[in-house]
Design brief:
Elements lengths: L3 H4 L14 H13 L3 H4 L12 H13 L10 H14 L9 H8 L7 H29 L5 H13 L13 H12 L8 E2 L4 H6 L4 E2 L3 E6 L5 H16 L3 E5 L4 H13 L3 H6 L4 H16 L2 E4 L6 H15 L3 E5 L12 H19 L2 E7 L21 H6 L2 E6 L13 E9 L5 E8 L4 E4 L4
Parallel strand pairs: 3-7, 3-8, 4-5, 4-6, 6-7
Antiparallel strand pairs: 1-2, 8-9, 9-10, 10-11
Helix pairs in contact: 2-4, 2-7, 4-5, 5-6, 7-8, 8-15, 11-12, 12-14, 15-16
Length: 453
């Protein structure tokens, strides 16, 4: 719905009307006829779609069309009028064509040297118009009998983000501006301020210190391999060990179960003893020793069984602003609500892409767990591959890092590698891939480092 804010003016009957600065629009349209090169100069800060007067906007487009074959100088009003007439004759111009007198009169309104100021006034009015439109949309949502607090509030927040256009040109930098920072990074080892440790020494080494802001990390495995356990290990290493604000979105397990598993892993208390309520005094001493650190960790858990990208985006935006959120873990992708699409694969691809964009926009790490298809079970060695990611190849495309979890003893109980697990880094954008071996301690609900470096 947010995309509608750009092009749909408010109904003429609305009490407030649509904010606009028609006088500034007129000067901008006149000035581009007088100085066609202004179109390039204004590209970084102005969008002609913000011009509300239809024929002023079409004059801009006509000048832009004509200047493609113009070597230098201004564009006379006669040429602009001829272009508009030609477009009208071909059916391309959807409005009444202005007369020669109107175009000539517009041309005489040029005010050279002040175009940026007038363009800024047009942009300001357009932002105000989109804010008003957003307000009316929010009112309509709130008054609807089908109002859903989770979906509609999140959608309204997303729309509000779109009131001001992202200025892509403002992000441009020359290599000269960037090379100095590259030289500094070349001799400065990463710290927990710019990397999030995984809790596994060899994996941190492979990933140049851990997970980096803006990354989408996919952890894939067949059912019952320990995806959730590994995700909790990442969360513990980040939130409890180094104090990284972390959000765990659990669509499968409830808060009590997750809390029990984290205490079991941290205090080395057998999880099945906790479930039976038969922990010993020694167990409780270890629990008491670890409980304060766990309690102070900035780890937030949400176990709502319903999660969509707009809902998550709203929660992430708030937590980034209020507590500096840096890590989000989603357990797991196939349980998320997806939007309408032609196929399930396309729907999952849309979610995957949205999560990657969210990670980049907010400067956070997003770790999402994903089921694998039955490909590994059809191979002799049973090892998973990146191509086994279920339902969408777009997951592999969007991910910066893909970690596949494999345990031989899950298939062969008498395996000589019983108790070991492989973290197969099958994709690492901009870095090497490798297989990291760790120990699986299922009774403590954790994987344990077996670093060889």
């Amino acid at each position: 719905m947010s995309s509608d804010l750009w092009d749909a003016p408010l109904d003429a009957q609305t009490p407030t009307g649509r904010p606009a600065d028609v006088d500034a629009e007129r000067v901008v349209a006149a000035n581009v006829m007088d100085q066609p090169d202004l179109i390039d100069e204004l590209a970084a800060e102005f969008d002609p779609a913000d011009i509300t007067t239809d024929w002023y906007r079409w004059v801009w487009h006509a000048v832009d069309e004509i200047r493609q074959t113009l070597t230098k100088g201004d564009i006379r009003w006669q040429a602009v009028h001829r272009q508009l007439v030609a477009w009208k004759a071909s059916g391309y111009l959807p409005i009444p064509c202005p007369s020669e007198v109107q175009v000539c009169d517009l041309y005489s309104s040029a005010a050279p040297g002040a175009t940026s100021w007038y363009a800024a006034k047009v942009t300001k009015a357009a932002v105000a118009a989109r804010l008003v439109a957003h307000g009316h949309n929010a009112i309509s949502r709130g008054r609807s009998a089908a109002f859903d607090p989770d979906e509609d509030v999140a959608a309204a927040q997303t729309e509000l983000d779109g009131v001001i256009r992202a200025n892509d040109q403002a992000q441009l930098s020359t290599i000269g501006d960037l090379i100095g920072d590259s030289l500094v990074r070349a001799v400065t080892p990463p710290t927990s301020e710019d990397r999030i440790p995984t809790g596994f020494i060899d994996l941190d080494s492979l990933l140049c210190g851990g997970f980096a802001a803006g990354q989408l990390v996919v952890v894939g495995a067949r059912p019952a391999m320990g995806k959730t356990t590994l995700a909790q290990d990442f969360a513990r290493a980040a939130a409890i060990k180094v104090g990284v604000p972390t959000l765990v979105e659990s669509l499968e397990m409830g808060k009590p179960e997750l809390s029990d598993r984290i205490l079991s892993a941290e205090a080395r208390i057998a999880l099945h003893h906790m479930k039976q309520g038969i922990c010993t005094d020694d167990d409780m001493v270890r629990a008491a020793r670890r409980a304060p650190d766990i309690a102070l960790a900035p780890m937030h858990i949400n176990d709502s069984p319903i999660l969509s990208v707009p809902m998550l985006r709203g929660r992430v935006r708030h937590m980034v602003r209020t507590m500096g959120l840096r890590l989000v873990i989603i357990d797991y992708l196939q349980l998320m609500q997806v939007g309408r699409a032609e196929t399930r694969q396309q729907a999952v691809a849309d979610v995957s892409r949205a999560l990657k964009l969210m990670a980049k926009e907010f400067g956070i790490v997003v770790i999402i767990l994903c089921q694998l298809n039955r490909g590994p079970e059809q191979r002799t060695e049973k090892k998973p591959q990146v191509s086994d990611l279920r339902e969408s190849g777009a997951i592999e495309q969007d991910a910066d890092i893909v970690i596949l979890l494999h345990r031989e003893d899950a298939y062969e109980k008498e395996s000589p590698r019983a108790g070991e697990a492989d973290l197969i880094v099958g994709k690492h954008r901009g870095g090497p891939t490798a297989t990291i071996t760790c120990a699986f301690q299922g009774h403590y609900a954790r994987f344990v480092d077996m670093a060889q470096t």
